[in-house]
């Protein structure tokens, strides 16, 4: 498959999940297909289901603020979810649902090949670091998999909507992400100068 649209069409047709039955829109994700950063949430909410776009409700507006705090826009990154359809009554996605949508997420990751993943919330984090607790390691980078992919641990932006004290934590964590990206860019530039 040569485009994200082809990937999405394939998995719309080949993913088996009861979640497809109750949704207004499937929410595959959006953003820069060449992004260095890929934000991965848990599942679409009511506003996302209505509009067919990820992170466009209140949590998404705060994600926009977080991006702006480090000089980025939505168009600079790729934003998606583990599960591409809204679970009924906005419940957490089940393990079975996450498993059904995992090949789709994996295909998106392989296509985009970002430098860093930012799983937002525990369901997204469990795809990369299943035995990690966000409260203990948020704002930190871990390397995972054969390719030593960078995973930046972060709370879901919605947590700041329920508890305002998390707002500053998330903004601080984003600064850590910016510092990491700047260090990686400096390393790449140094390596290029060596040739």
Explain this structure:
- The protein is of the alpha/beta class and 195 residues long.
- It has one domain (4-193): Uracil-DNA Glycosylase, subunit E (3-Layer(aba) Sandwich), CATH 3.40.470.10.
- It is 45% helix and 12% strand.
- The chain is built from 8 helices and 6 strands.
- The chain has helices at residues 4-14, 46-51, 58-69, 95-112, 122-125, 134-137, 159-162, 165-193, and strands at residues 30-31, 37-41, 78-81, 116-119, 141-144, 149-152.
- It has a 6-stranded mixed beta sheet with strand order 1-3-2-4-6-5.
- Strand 5 (141-144) and strand 6 (149-152) form a beta hairpin.
- It is globular.
- The mean pLDDT is 93.
Summarize this, please?
The protein has 195 residues and is an alpha/beta fold. The chain has a single domain, classed as 3-Layer(aba) Sandwich (Uracil-DNA Glycosylase, subunit E), CATH 3.40.470.
List keywords for this structure.
alpha/beta; Uracil-DNA Glycosylase, subunit E; 6 strands; 12% strand
Task: Give the SSE map.
Layout (H helix, E strand, L loop, with lengths): L3 H11 L15 E2 L5 E5 L4 H6 L6 H12 L8 E4 L13 H18 L3 E4 L2 H4 L8 H4 L3 E4 L4 E4 L6 H4 L2 H29 L2
Parallel strand pairs: 2-3, 2-4, 4-6
Antiparallel strand pairs: 1-3, 5-6
Helix pairs in contact: 1-4
